[in-house]
Amino acid sequence: MPQQPSELNQEEQESEFVQALAAVERSLAAVKERYTQIQVDRQRQVELGHRREEIRQSKRQNPLPELKKELREIEQELETIELNLESSLFSWGSIKQPFWQAVRFGGLGILIGWILKSYAG
Asked: Please, are residues 81 and 48 in contact by the beta-carbon 8 Å criterion?
C-alpha cells in the first residue's frame, strides 16, 4: 500500500531530527574533549611554573648548563600551552559567521548610504 504524503513528511522529519541529534552529540563530545584538554593544559602549566621557579632558584645558587637547558625547554613548553589555551577562546570557526555577516551588512549599508546620498545631493 503506498504511503500517504503526510507519512513521508513525518519520516523525513524524523530522519532530519536523528541527523541533527547525532550532530549535537558529536559537537558535545568535541566540547567535552576540548574541556578535558584545557584542564590538562592548565594543570601542566601550573606544574611547569613551579618547576621553573625551582630551577631559577637553583640556578642562582649553582649555575649549571643543564639547568639553563631545562629552563629553556620549560619556557618553550609553557609558550605552547599558552597558545593552546588561547586558541580555546577563539577559533576561526567561532567568528567566521559573525565576521562575514558584518562584512556583508556593513558593505550593504555603505552601498545604500551612497545611493541615498546621490539621490539627496
From this structure: yes
